[in-house]
UniProtKB/TrEMBL annotation:
Its EC number is 2.5.1.3. GO terms for cellular component: cytoplasm. This is Thiamine-phosphate synthase. The keyword Magnesium applies. The lineage of its organism: Bacteria, Pseudomonadati, Pseudomonadota, Gammaproteobacteria, Alteromonadales.
Length: 218
């Protein structure tokens, strides 16, 4: 686990994997390119893999992220986070999930909480020991099609009321990313706009990640 103090400011491109875009044979290489392009944090998210596949892929990603000193977050699975010595977890809205994760993973772990479009959920996450809160979806999304919509104004409200870094997710791309940051997001979570290859090569992931990172320089 990378020793990331809880009070360290989390900021930048938050890259999230998707098994439909990143099959196992290209997973690590694609994530490596995202890191080389400047991604600040990686989340391994896979809702359909078997237990054996999850562990194997998480171990490979943990090794890659450790090489580049980039935090690796595991989606939902505290047990796999501990097994592969990842840096933390991202959790949905199960009761006391953040509190349980903090108790099991310790004070240095990065623990994120999905808050959709709710300041109340963000305040609860703060109370339970979250490291950051995530709001969204803000735009039409390939990966978050069924998530409830969120208004960008919630980021400004959270900036006043929630003393935690804020992640924005859902349909964010290079065209709308700046508006999300202007409303107060500290990190922008990107899946499709970063890893959907189309007709480009895997090496273009680094270029796309670098382009996202430049948004934070404005």
């Amino acid at each position: 686990m990378i020793n990331t103090p809880l009070n360290q400011k989390l900021r930048g491109l938050y890259a999230i994997t998707d098994p439909e875009l990143l099959p196992e044979e290209t997973l690590v290489a694609s994530v490596e390119q995202a890191i080389l392009g400047g991604a600040s944090i990686i989340q391994y998210r896979d809702k359909h893999a078997t237990e054996v596949e999850l562990i194997r892929r998480a171990e490979s990603l943990a090794s890659c992220c450790k090489t580049y000193q980039t935090p690796l977050i595991i989606n939902d699975r505290i047990d796999i986070c501990k097994r592969v010595n990842a840096d933390g977890v991202h959790l949905g809205q199960e009761d006391n999930a953040v509190k349980a994760a903090r108790e099991q993973l310790g004070s240095a772990a990065i623990i994120g909480a999905t808050c959709h479009n709710s300041i109340d959920l963000a305040e609860q996450a703060l109370t339970e020991g979250a490291s950051y809160v995530a709001f969204g979806r803000f735009f039409n999304s390939h990966s978050k099609q069924h998530a409830p919509p969120a208004d960008l104004s919630i980021l400004k409200e959270a900036e006043l009321r929630i003393r935690l870094p804020k992640v924005a997710i859902g349909g964010i791309n290079l065209d709308n990313g700046q508006s999300v940051l202007e409303h107060g997001a500290d990190m922008i979570a990107v899946i499709h706009a970063l890893f959907a290859s189309g007709n480009v090569s895997i090496n273009d992931i680094a270029k796309k990640a670098a382009a996202f990172q430049t948004l934070f320089n404005h």
